[in-house]
Design goal:
11 strands, seven-stranded antiparallel beta sheet, 29% helix, Alpha-Beta Plaits, alpha+beta
C-alpha cells in the first residue's frame, strides 16, 4: 500500500482507531484528529462515531470510537511517537490497562503489513494485536473499507465481523 508521491517521497497509509470515555468525548476525538493533521497526517476518510460499553469493566463510562484512514510520510515509529505525544497533550495520563481515558489512538494497520518492533521500550505491533476481536474497531473499519484484509490472520473483514459474538454486534450503536 506504500506509494510514492510526485517528489518521490514514500507515502504510508494507516488505519487509526480513536477512542475516548472521559470528559467531552467527541470533542476529545475531534481534537485528536486536528492534532494529527498538524503533524503531517492527512485524513482521507473518517468513520461515524460509535458508542460502546467499556470493556472489561462495563461500570466505567461508555466509549465513543471512530476509525480513520490516513496517509503520511511518517514512518511507523515516528507516527507512534507522535500519537503518544498527542494523547498526552490531550490529557491522557498513566493509568492501569483498560481504565477510562481522555484519548486513545491505536495504529490498526500500516501499509497492510505485519510489523513487530520496539520503540522506547514500548512494543509496536501492526495489525493491532486484538483488533480482530473488537467490534468498536471492526465496524468502523468495515464502514471505511469493506475489502480490508487482515495480513496476519489472513481473513477479510467480513469474516472477522462474522466471527464476533452476536451480542458484540448488537451492543454497538452510532453516537
Amino acid at each position: 500500500m506504500k506509494k510514492q508521491d510526485i517528489l518521490g517521497n514514500q507515502v504510508n497509509y494507516a488505519y487509526l482507531a480513536l477512542g475516548s470515555n472521559l470528559g467531552k468525548k467527541i470533542k476529545n476525538l475531534e481534537c485528536a484528529k486536528y492534532n494529527l493533521s498538524k503533524i503531517g497526517v492527512n485524513i482521507i476518510k473518517i468513520s461515524r462515531f460509535y458508542c460502546t460499553k467499556s470493556w472489561p469493566n462495563s461500570k466505567f463510562p461508555e466509549f465513543i470510537n471512530a476509525v480513520l484512514l490516513v496517509k503520511t510520510k511518517l514512518l511507523l515509529h515516528e507516527l507512534f511517537k507522535q500519537i503518544k505525544l498527542i494523547e498526552k497533550s490531550l490529557g491522557r495520563s498513566k493509568v492501569p490497562k483498560n481504565y477510562p481515558r481522555i484519548c486513545d489512538i491505536d495504529i490498526i494497520d500500516f501499509n497492510g503489513e505485519c510489523i513487530f518492533t520496539k520503540f522506547n521500550h514500548q512494543k509496536i505491533e501492526v495489525p493491532h494485536i486484538n483488533m480482530h476481536k473488537r467490534n468498536f474497531v471492526l465496524l468502523p473499519l468495515y464502514e471505511l473499507n469493506q475489502n480490508w484484509f487482515h495480513p496476519k490472520i489472513k481473513k477479510n473483514i467480513v469474516k472477522l465481523l462474522s466471527s464476533l459474538p452476536s451480542n458484540d454486534l448488537k451492543s454497538i450503536k452510532f453516537s
